[in-house]
Q: What sequence folds into this?
């Protein structure tokens, strides 16, 4: 990839996607390559046991795939965000924090993934960082192929130059406040195989 002409919105080639999948598998991640948002949703849902306690980051990728809506409306799973949406953060903040810290299954995405297979996620509140790193029993990440970058330097560029401005503008429009880059996690590999599933989507999905 040529970093000088890098387009943070363009889908990766089939060759780059297959190469990334191989490198992710070498890092002990399960990898599934799908073509579309609908196929991504199917791949995620078939990996969530009925009755499981499920949490998710605030992810446009999950929204675009219809996964967030499915979990909010389904009674098959104990979706933590459905519960916490009815709770008072001022008086039940500790309970919300504990509920969110160690779900059976954590769902989300990343802001960038390097061609070598390093997963990079950044956050303002940091609430999803703990479950991603170790708190959740299983981690499932849906990643559009446009998020593949050559290296960590370009991953940080993608966050700062593309993702952050979009998220900041969205929050200012919706809530009247901006966002900030306060915590960034780099997931290099899984210590043991099987905890993390990466669903790579050929078409661009999310930001």
A:
């Amino acid at each position: 990839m040529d970093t000088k002409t890098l387009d943070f919105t363009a889908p990766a080639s089939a060759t780059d996607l297959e190469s990334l999948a191989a490198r992710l598998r070498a890092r002990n991640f399960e990898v599934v390559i799908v073509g579309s948002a609908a196929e991504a949703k199917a791949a995620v849902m078939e990996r969530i046991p009925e009755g499981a306690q499920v949490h998710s980051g605030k992810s446009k990728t999950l929204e675009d795939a219809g996964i967030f809506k499915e979990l909010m409306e389904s009674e098959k799973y104990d979706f933590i965000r459905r519960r916490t949406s009815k709770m008072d953060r001022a008086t039940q903040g500790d309970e919300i924090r504990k509920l969110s810290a160690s779900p059976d299954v954590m769902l989300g995405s990343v802001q960038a993934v390097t061609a070598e297979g390093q997963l990079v996620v950044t956050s303002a509140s940091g609430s999803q960082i703990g479950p991603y790193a170790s708190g959740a029993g299983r981690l499932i990440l849906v990643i559009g192929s446009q998020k593949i970058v050559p290296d960590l330097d370009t991953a940080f560029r993608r966050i700062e130059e593309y993702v952050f401005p979009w998220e900041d503008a969205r929050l200012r429009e919706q809530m009247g406040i901006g966002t900030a880059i306060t915590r960034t996690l780099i997931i290099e590999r899984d210590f043991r195989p099987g905890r993390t599933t990466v669903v790579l989507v050929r078409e661009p999905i999310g930001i």
Remarks:
- Residues 152-175 form the longest helix (24 residues).
- The mean pLDDT is 94.
- Residues 83 and 161 are 34 Å apart (CA to CA).
- The longest strand covers residues 138-144.
